[in-house]
Amino acid sequence: MYAIIENGNKQYKVSEGDTVRLEKLDAEVGAEVELNVLMVADDAGVKVGQDVSAAKVKATVVAQDKFKKVIVFKYKAKKNERKKQGHRQPFTAVKIESISL
Predict the structure, then answer these.
(1) How far is CA 32 from CA 17, 46, 96, in A?
(2) In 3D, which of 20, 32, 2 has the Cα closest to residue 93?
(3) Could you say which of 15, 17, 59, 77 would form a disulfide bridge with 2 (CB–CB 3.0 to 4.6 Å)?
(4) Is the pTM of this model over 0.85?
(5) What tens digit of pLDDT does each residue of 68-101 get?
(6) Residues paired with residue 13 on neighbouring β-strands, in sequence order
(7) 51 — phi, psi (to 5°)?
């Protein structure tokens, strides 16, 4: 069984036991969170729309961290104009505990 969840305007395919890095959530490490379900697929078939309005995906927060640094370097040729920036996007790692219909 797997589910498609939505977080931060992105969609993720998850199944029980998976660890997924999502957009930063306001939750402490060890807290249980419920995620927005868009689709559920199992042996009986695929369910979307009103069929999954009662579906729940429960997950436990494993870590609050930042991704690896990305370097952004802008320059204009022949103008001696340079700008170097670094960016580390924060994320929340969650472990999927259960998917229920």
Answers:
(1) 14, 26, 10
(2) 20
(3) 15
(4) no
(5) 999 999 999 999 999 999 999 999 999 999 999 8
(6) 4
(7) -65, -25
Q: Who contacts 47 (Cβ-Cβ below 8 Å, separation ≥6)?
A: 39, 40, 41, 55, 101
The model's pLDDT over 11-57, given as tens digits with 9 standing for 90+, comes to 999 999 999 999 999 999 999 999 999 999 988 899 998 989 899 99
Domain ranges of the chain: 2-100
Residue 38 near residue 52, CB atoms below 8 Å = yes
CA distance 46 to 1: 10
Q: Which residues contact 92 (CB under 8 A, 6 or more apart)?
A: 21, 22, 23, 24, 25, 27, 61, 63, 64
Report the C-alpha dihedral over residues 36, 13, 25, 64, rounded to 10 degrees: 160
